[in-house]
Amino acid sequence: MQQEPTQYELYDPPADGITAVQFSPTDSQLLLVSSWDKTVRLYDVAANQQRAKFEHRAAVLDCCFSDASRGYSGGLDKGVNMLDLTTSTDTPLGMHDEPVRCLSWSQESSKRPVLSHPRSSLSFPL
């Protein structure tokens, strides 16, 4: 017997196309969403509530969690930001020569975000 997939319609969704969605590795109720509308939004899907919203200068192409209280984002503005999901503040970590297309959190590489672009890969010390 198959279970039907659960669907969520998010309250206050991004105004433009969604570029990435990531569930928290430590809290399955938390969803991080990046968008062409220059934002990253944190949702509590169980409560259908937006908990935080972060602005970039250009479209955000990817986002990731490190845990339930911290995330990272990057995009066409070429910057990588650390997102404090508890206080709704962001901290620029650095710039790349090209737009940031892909971000991931690496436990193995001294707990730092790793970004990649077709021609390069970088990790940012914290």
Automatic annotation (TrEMBL):
Matching Gene3D superfamilies: YVTN repeat-like/Quinoprotein amine dehydrogenase
PROSITE patterns recorded: WD_REPEATS_2
WD repeats, residue ranges: 11-53
Superkingdom of the organism of origin: Eukaryota
Region (Disordered): 107-126
Keyword Repeat: yes
Entries under InterPro entries matching the protein: WD40/YVTN_repeat-like_dom_sf (IPR015943), WD40_repeat_dom_sf (IPR036322), WD40_rpt (IPR001680)
The UniProt record lists the keyword Repeat: yes
Pfam families in the record: WD40 (PF00400)
Transmembrane segments: none
Keywords for the protein's UniProt record, in alphabetical order: Repeat, WD repeat
Descriptive protein name: WD40-repeat-containing domain protein
Organism: Jimgerdemannia flammicorona
